[in-house]
Amino acid sequence: MLRALALARRGLYGAHPNPLVGAVLARGGRIIGEGWHREFGRAHAEINAIRSAKEPVKGATLYVTLEPCSTQGKTGPCTASIIAAGIKRVVIGAADPNPANAGKAARILRAAGIEVSSGVLAAAARGLNPAFNKFMRTGLPYITLKAAQSADGKIADHAGRSRWISSPQSRAYAHRLRAQADAVLAGINTVRADDPLLNVRGVRVARQPAVVVLDSGLNIPPKARVFQNERVIIAAARGAAPARIKKLRRDNVSILLLPPGRHGGVDLNALLAELGRLGIAHILVEGGGRVLGSFISEGLFDRFMLFCSPLIIGGERSKNSVTWPDRLNGPGKLGINVGFKKISKVGPDLLIEVVKAGKEV
Fold first, then answer.
1. Rounded distance between C-alpha atoms, residue 33 and residue 3, angstroms
2. pLDDT confidence bin for 327, thresholds 50/70/90
3. Among 275, 336, 254, 41, which residue's Cα sits nearest to residue 142?
4. Active site residue 286
5. How far apart are CA 205 and CA 111, in angstroms?
6. Which residue of the set 34, 46, 67, 286 is catalytic?
7. For residues 219, 186, 38 and 12, what is the CA-based torsion angle, rounded to 10 degrees?
8. Packing angle between helix 104-111 and helix 78-85, nearest 10 degrees?
């Protein structure tokens, strides 16, 4: 199972929004086949393990990190392939949180005379797929926030200069975070100030993430570089001018008209529900400070990846990495408690992984 866990991680940039899954076929203490879910829409780990075998798999034991699927989707049910292959025993790591599959595989396999064991290294197997697990339970995307700040908490000076606060190593890491997400989200102020592409570079991916822009008034420039991406979603407020909507319409652009949020902009809960319906299971939110502050103050994040550089910007009007209205810090409330999950070095920078208070750390 440890080997299957290691194999599963190889699908980090291709499997989503499907889960990371690894599988190992063994007989007599020898591995005879192994596989992982490489890419969304293609063969699952169990099938790849069977196909990789160098000898007949009849009578072998299959170790798989996630309960095999038992329904027809983009591929056929893995339970049917396991039965057809003559596998004698199946050892499962974690249960599938997908209601369409949960608990069904063991019943189907046992009915076919296959011995089934479950819960082997279950915590580690569940830990492979926090985004998939949340999406299957709630229908809502898993939210990763990301910011690069100076040691004194600034993302830009008073003139908006921010290049480069983070190191080349941190910027490469940020692209790996993008490659793990189904969508990258930024606010209109970031798009107008920096004109970013928001795509993945330096990492081989099967497909680029969608780009989501929070733009309640549809003020995005029609020639903004984000429109070079394959899929662009603009979150605007209901009542946006029809002329602006028409001006931005194109094949790769969707415009979501949403109710207003509590603190201005669009309602983030409504946005996340709509993105979930579109099949987006994991969103990387890249800011700026007001956008990050909105997600944090409304409790709409699962982890915060904070790159902190050995640089002090200072200044009286430089820009904070996280911003929300002062009224939210009322009497007796200094701020929002979080938990530190992990602190590591990335080049000269610190990477601090933060989770909501109360989450497992």
1. 11
2. confident
3. 275
4. no
5. 39
6. 46
7. 170
8. 30
